Amino acid sequence: MAVTDWIGMNGPFGAFSAKVYTGETITAGDFVKTVGTEITETGTIMDKLLVSPADASGDEALIVGVALKGGTAGDIIPIATQGIFRMIANAAITAGYMLSQTANAASMKVTHAVAGDRQIGIALTTCNAQNDYVLVKLQLGPTGAEA
After folding, report:
1. Which domains can be identified in the chain, with CATH numbers?
2. What does the DSSP assignment read for 46-113?
3. pTM to 2 decimals?
4. Mind listing the pLDDT tens digit for each residue in 45-58?
């Protein structure tokens, strides 16, 4: 089961389509990263714009969005870059705080952002404990190195 659900957002909705990288499976709601491929004059952009789950240690700095649909290698899926999502908290969260993906990226949970974290959004609601749901406005910020 995905740990994020797209709720929607009034106004413009930011998304792009990308191909699931070889050997990967993405579930709707997963944080995703692009797989480093150069765009060249040959081939199509879709053949070069590849994504995989951001589920390994260190991947939190590479997040480019949230998968709106699941897929396996070669499938074209939509990736949200903004919107409102229901996500699972790694700990209690206070509305209004900036959030990041947990350091254990495989958990696909969010927590309060601290200095140096890649900010992924702002909490719209409060939750009291780990594994509670929180509404998050996806708002990708720079990585800690870029902030």
Report:
1. 10-81 (2.40.340), 83-139 (no CATH)
2. HHH-EEEE--STTGGGGEEEEESS-EETT-EEEEESEEEEEEEBSS-B-TT-EEEE-SSGGG--EEE-
3. 0.78
4. 667 789 999 888 77
